[in-house]
User: Which sequence fits this backbone?
């Protein structure tokens, strides 16, 4: 834990804070409160893939003692056939507020999401990052595994 | 299309062929016929994320005229908040049988999965690959986007 900060699941009440912090990361665009609530409902409805018993919403926020959102991120679990029909975790959309940088919140968040994935049974957890962030993820225990390729609609 | 080959969704009848072809890629391990069928049922139950109306099992196989499985792959769709609550596609677990190499089946499969993702509305589609496969994915229209990092349980 980091003194003064707590981590919890995203809820429907987090609309402004979550939309605001994601702007650190990239274009958020047009997401109404209603659409946000629909998406949180969808996230809450996700089960551990390939099971019907354990719910698994892996979208978390870190907040300070005043309730201000300081960081967010999530881990998607993918049910594969390979590796004994294993689970692979994908960490996505890590954002730390500029107001809260320099407090190791990024590492705290990655450590927590990694723990969530390993406890769910993932045989591996992956994420894609900018080359300049490789040393940060190495400090979190990650190693280089390959090249991310993309194609975009626009 | 590639003459003599067709592409279709994975079905429960594909147990031996799919398990066999995935061994080209990595360790498959202990996946019983019953477990395979459970996983195909799970895949068949997936909806386009954040909707309750369009089913979306994105696991496909390419087969030859005799019904032999020549290639497999899938695209997972992730509902984000960023990019107007957009969809991001993740192409995973591409395998082409050694018996069918040299026929451009890999490119055929990637083109098809890319089309599935774009038609579903993805603003981008990503995949991770070994550095030696970058030129292949560039031929499929993909560009380098970042570094894949991983942590493994073992």
Assistant:
């Amino acid at each position: 834990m980091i003194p003064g900060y707590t981590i919890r699941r995203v809820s429907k009440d987090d609309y402004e804070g979550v939309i605001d912090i994601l702007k650190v990361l990239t274009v958020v665009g047009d997401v109404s409160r209603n659409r946000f609530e629909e998406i949180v409902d969808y996230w809450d409805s996700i089960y551990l893939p390939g099971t019907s018993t354990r719910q698994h919403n892996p979208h978390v926020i870190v907040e300070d003692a005043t309730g201000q959102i300081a960081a967010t991120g999530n881990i998607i679990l993918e049910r594969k056939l390979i590796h004994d029909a294993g689970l692979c975790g994908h960490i996505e959309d890590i954002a730390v507020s500029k107001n809260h940088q320099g407090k190791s919140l990024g590492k705290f968040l990655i450590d927590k999401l990694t723990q969530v994935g390993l406890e769910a049974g993932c045989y591996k957890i992956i994420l894609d990052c900018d080359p300049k962030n490789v040393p940060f993820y190495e400090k979190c225990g990650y190693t280089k595994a390959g090249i991310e390729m993309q194609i975009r609609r626009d």
User: Anything to note?
Assistant: Chain A touches chain B through 61 residues (CB under 8 Å). Chain A has one domain: 5-128. The helical segments of chain A are 15-22, 33-44, 82-85, 105-120, 134-139. Chain A has a mean pLDDT of 92.
